[in-house]
Design a protein that fits this description.
By secondary structure, the chain is an alpha+beta fold. The chain is built from 11 helices and 7 strands. A 5-stranded mixed sheet has the order 1-3-2-6-7. A hairpin with a 5-residue loop joins strand 4 and strand 5. The longest helix is centred in the first third of the chain and has 34 residues. It is globular.
Length: 303
């Protein structure tokens, strides 16, 4: 009986080890494929109003969250250690197309983009593009008509556009965008609390007036038109849509975490510790499988 139990345990161990190897290989393959260039639209997109034909973008593009540190005069060699100069030449350009009252946009910025920015800020440069599914038409009197998918969303997108252009500090801006998304979406009347988000982002209170005045007049109109043009050129049919380095798209409703995808864009020689310590699929599986194997061993011994 003891010999049979031992043989059974050995067989179970072999089976679990084989399963572990297969899942690990599949996980690594999925992560690699998700970070590879892919200019097609995300699978099973959420239906949306077709974006208008692309027009030449205005001369002044929206400011990006540029977190690259000042370059130093340090010569780069094959054996050179990680320096600010190394990093600044390998910045991952990230464009985030989103809508101010879209639940998926809210979750992505809050749960994935902001935590990744906090850990890999010096490696990424983020450009926010709200009003990604909005539309602009011209009325007979030459005035502009702005339409959005959700009630109150055009006004919220306008606040985002003004914030992006009025807030100069990179960290403050991403915090403001995150707060505006979360608080605006959760507010009863779907209105962005500008004062609260400015305060929570440690921004000078004078900016509250600047953003408020901007959102209540036509200052943001050229920026919203530019967002429409950029979204049409990027073939945005669902949000959030994230573009890496102008040519690689990623659907973050998938199982691949955003930080994993960003780390795949950073050269191996510049990989920070935050990327090296990301648990792989095999690591996660081991944690779950080992207790099962141990429990099976003791159960068989009792037979």
């Amino acid at each position: 009986m003891e010999s049979r139990a031992r043989n059974t345990f050995v067989l179970l161990t072999v089976v679990f080890a084989f399963a572990l190897q297969c899942v690990s290989a599949e996980t690594n393959s999925n992560i690699a494929n998700s970070a590879a260039p892919n200019n097609s639209a995300p699978a099973n997109p959420t239906p949306a109003n077709p974006a208008p034909a692309a027009n030449p973008a205005p001369a002044n593009p929206p400011p990006a969250i540029n977190v690259s540190p000042p370059a130093e005069n340090i010569a780069k060699t094959e054996t050179a250690p990680l320096t600010n100069n190394n990093v600044s030449t390998h910045i991952v350009e990230i464009e985030v197309y989103y809508e101010a009252l879209c639940s998926d946009s809210v979750k992505f910025v809050s749960n994935q983009l902001l935590p990744t920015f906090n850990k890999l800020g010096k490696f990424i440069n983020v450009t926010f593009i709200p009003f990604a599914q909005g539309n602009i038409t011209t009325n007979p009197d030459k005035s502009l008509n702005f339409t959005c998918k959700r009630e109150g969303e055009c006004a919220a997108d306008r606040v985002h556009a003004c914030g992006i252009h009025k807030i100069k500090n990179n960290e403050q801006l991403i915090k403001f965008v995150n707060c505006s998304l979360t608080e605006g979406y959760n507010s009863p009347n779907k209105t962005v609390p500008i004062g609260l988000c400015v305060k929570n982002s440690n921004i000078d209170s004078a900016v509250i007036t600047e953003i408020t005045d901007c959102a209540n007049n036509t200052d943001a109109n050229p920026w919203l038109q530019e967002y429409v043009n950029k979204s049409a050129a990027a073939h945005v049919i669902s949000v959030p849509k994230v573009v890496f380095n102008k040519n690689s798209t990623e659907d973050f409703s998938s199982a691949v975490p955003f930080m994993n995808a960003v780390c795949k864009q950073i050269p191996d020689e510049l990989q920070p510790e935050e990327c090296k310590t990301i648990p792989s699929g095999s690591d996660t599986l081991v944690v779950g499988v080992l207790p099962i194997i141990i429990g099976a061993f003791y159960f068989i011994k009792l037979i």
